[in-house]
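Subgroup meeting minutes
Present: P.N., E.W., G.H.
Scribe: E.W.

1. P.N. recapped why we're keeping a running log of single-chain structure predictions: easier to compare across weeks, and new members can see raw inputs and outputs side by side.
2. G.H. added today's entry (77 aa).
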Amino acid sequence: MRTFQYRLQQKMDEVFFLEPADLGPAHITHIYKMITSFLKSMPFLYIVPLSFLLAFFIYILLGPLIVKLVSLLQYGF
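Output recorded in log:
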């Protein structure tokens, strides 16, 4: 029975072992960790305003095309 407990403990250690995130070059890994630390603490504080700004700029750039596309999709469904 001891071997079963040993194998179970080895599997549990294997499952719960997470290697640190490494993207290769040190400066890219540093930027990744800096960005993800903000997103882990307050994701909606950053994501919601950025998505509104992105949608606004896309509307400014492709406004008439988006209006036609939405109208087409609205009548199609």
